[in-house]
Amino acid sequence: MKVSAIRIRELPELDDDWAQSLSEEVESLEQLRAKIRSDMEQQATTEADNKMRGALLRHLSTLTSSNCLNVCRTSDRASS
Fold first, then answer.
1. How far is CA 79 from the centre of its chain?
2. Do 26 and 19 contact (CB within 8 A), yes or no?
3. Assigned domain for 10 exists
4. Which domain holds residue 74?
5. How many domains are there within the chain?
6. pLDDT at 1 over 60
7. 3-class DSSP state for residue 27?
8. Exposed end of the chain (fewer CB within 10 Å): N or C?
9. 69 belongs to a structural domain
10. pLDDT greater than 60 at residue 78
């Protein structure tokens, strides 16, 4: 086996300059961290809201279907 190259990945310094290179909205690493945290919290809130809406819609659909069957049965009895 012959080794043709060895590559070493150098990671950038996590500093204000690096943070500024990622986004024009931030001036410091601390601001970048706060922005990322805020974005993640917003995403988690949105996902939780969507999950709750889905569960409510499924539950309402079940109730509506059950109620429709009861109403239909009741009106059938009344017309007989």
1. 51
2. yes
3. no
4. 16-79
5. 1
6. yes
7. coil
8. N
9. yes
10. no
